[in-house]
Design brief:
The protein is of the alpha/beta class and about 300 residues long. Helices cover about 35% and strands about 20% of the residues. It contains 9 helices and 12 strands. It has helices at about 15-30, 50-60, 75, 145-155, 175-190, 215-220, 225-240, 245-265, 270; strands at about 5-10, 10-15, 40-45, 65-70, 85-90, 110-115, 120-130, 135-140, 160, 200, 275-280, 290-295. The two termini are about 35 Å apart.
Length: about 300
């Protein structure tokens, strides 16, 4: 998921090596410093300009890992370990940014997960990280995935989470021609640096850990009674609205895949804690989405 990593060192963030340092030297015009090892290139930026440089990388299609010091200078001096303890605290992507300094423009930024099940059942979950809103839905589509295509046109996701397949050359058994073509185009034409949507695979059942306990999983994120009430009401509506078992399963898989992806980015708690989960119906046109349930 990460394209480059910013390591906190005192009042600066540093990037090392042929990949990260060279990338920021070429793309951002940063000068090499003497902060790395003798045989390692290094560039750095003041901590107050992290958002500006990270935002530039995001707009170029790169993701950014933010590694913070977890050990104070005093604790380091009293420790026998000469290496300061650090931790990856967040992975920034174009669709997952929430800080106003990193949001260039006013357009909504969505990430969208898709799961395709038997009998043309489709489950979707899309998230607007900046607002914390999570949208969940499912339906029985046609073989061409017309409704799903309408949804893509409406949402225009910057990141696609495919819950079918593992990114290998083998095509998943239940994957439609539409999703197969979309995944192929995102991987081959856009790649990891292009202007199109980024493609991420949730590889196996263990990665979609909450298929049978998604409500319980969501409840662990809620930090208030109101958030818990929102989640409970939406999940109850999911049970009542999506009567077809395959559609119900597909929707849960899409939600589970999205939770797994947000967890990888280390933003799951920030986004899911408010309980802003809404059900959406099958899109019927490219410019209209009817919200079945929205709890404020």
């Amino acid at each position: 998921l990460m394209s480059c990593s910013f390591f906190k060192k005192g009042k600066f963030y540093e990037l090392y090596g042929e990949q990260d340092a060279l990338l920021c030297h070429n793309k951002l015009g940063l000068n090499y410093t003497g902060g790395g090892r003798v045989d390692m290139r290094c560039v750095g930026v003041p901590e107050q300009s992290f958002e500006r440089h990270a935002g530039q990388l995001l707009e170029l299609g790169y993701s950014v890992g933010r590694v913070e010091q977890t050990q104070s200078a005093i604790a380091k001096k009293s420790s026998s370990n000469s290496v300061c303890e650090r931790e990856l605290v967040k992975i920034l992507t174009r669709a997952s940014v929430m800080d106003s300094e990193l949001l260039l423009g006013n357009e909504s930024r969505f990430m969208l997960s898709v799961y395709e099940a038997e009998n043309n059942a489709v489950g979707v979950c899309y998230v607007e990280a900046a607002s914390g809103h999570v949208y969940l839905g499912g339906w029985t589509d046609d073989s061409r995935r017309s409704a799903l295509e309408h949804l893509f046109a409406l949402v225009n996701p910057l990141e696609i989470v495919s819950c079918n397949g593992d990114g290998s050359a083998a095509r998943p058994p239940l994957q439609s021609d539409f999703m197969a073509a979309l995944c192929h185009r995102a991987f081959v034409e856009y790649g990891a640096r292009g202007g199109g949507p980024e493609l991420v695979y949730i590889r196996n059942e263990n990665d979609r850990a909450c298929l049978h306990s998604v409500a319980e999983k969501l409840a662990t994120y809620c930090d208030t009674a109101l958030a818990q009430e929102r989640i409970s009401a939406t999940m109850a509506a999911l049970e009542n609205t999506l009567a077809a078992s395959a559609v119900h399963f597909a929707a849960k898989c899409a939600l589970g895949g999205m939770i797994s992806y947000l967890s990888r980015l280390k933003v799951d708690k920030l986004i899911l804690s408010t309980g802003l989960l809404s059900l959406v119906s099958e899109p019927t046109t490219a410019d209209k989405m009817v919200t079945e349930l929205s709890i404020d």
